[in-house]
Amino acid sequence: MSDIRHLVHPDIDSLAAAAAQAVTGHLNERIAATGQAVLSLTGGSAGVKTAAALADAAIEWERVTIYFGDERFVPADDPERNDGQIDDVLLDALGGRPTVHRWPARGAEHDDVDAAASAFRAAHPMPAGDETLFDVTLLGMGPEGHIDSIFPHTPAVAESEQLVVGVRDCPKPPPERLTFTLPAVCRSRHVIVVATGDGKAEAVARGIEGADPVDWPVAGARGVVSTTYHLDGPAASMLS
pLDDT tens digits for 37-68? Predict the structure, then answer.
């Protein structure tokens, strides 16, 4: 796995701009090399800000496939859904140019989170082994170090085989979610973590120092080529 580096920015706007610039560079590099690129986006304040900063990026979006790292298992029109927030700041402006793979919504077709996870796996088969799944994975992070919907001391963080799981009894509402797992995240060429505020400082330090992912899931998020934390000053305050 890659070495880890961190960059400190004066505020969330400059952080988001820098992270978006990094995403743009990585995607364009892969498009130039292979003709296509795959991006996994995240919700949360810094994640949504970064997505918004991508709206004006010089990317051949028609060559990009977009996933969401996780999703709340709620109806499609629920404002809690990550994809709706990303629609508002990025995808609506891009029209139909990127290919977007959304998680199942709770409804008549899917009323059980585990069945919804199985349906997503069937609709989006992913190669076994070590083949890269994502060119860039963008991750936000909670104060306890959760990424996507992978929380400490839960079945999702312990998952070592499945790339996609349903989450029940989530410590943060809503209680049911769908998420990529650490084995999927670690099949990303580049992992970018965005975090702000002193409430995230311990999780940032534990993630960068390589703590046990069971305790601090962000510590298990490692890209094949690069792993970069984009932080503001308070979030970086416990780093030496």
Answer: 999 999 999 999 999 999 999 999 999 999 99
Q: How far apart (Å, rounded) are the C-alpha atoms in residues 100 and 91? A: 9
d(C-alpha 122, C-alpha 133), whole Å = 16
Cα separation, 140 vs 90, whole angstroms: 17
Instruction: Report which of 71, 46, 40, 85 is spatially closest to residue 170, judged by C-alpha positions.
Output: 71
Query: Could you read off the pLDDT of 13-34 as tens digits, one per residue?
Result: 999 999 999 999 999 999 999 9
Cα torsion through 101, 51, 141, 131, rounded to 10: 40
Beta carbons of 223 and 1 less than 8 angstroms apart:
yes
Residues forming beta bridges with residue 147, ordered by sequence position: 150
On whether the CB atoms of residues 232 and 11 are closer than 8 A, the answer is yes
DSSP H/E element including 82: helix 82-86
Q: Which residues contact 88 (CB under 8 A, 6 or more apart)?
A: none
The answer to pTM > 0.85 is yes
- Beta-bridged to residue 54, according to DSSP, are none
27 backbone φψ class: left, alpha, beta (φ>0; ψ -120 to 50):
alpha
DSSP symbols for 9-34? ESSHHHHHHHHHHHHHHHHHHHHHHH
Residue 36 and residue 31: Cα distance in Å, rounded?
A: 5
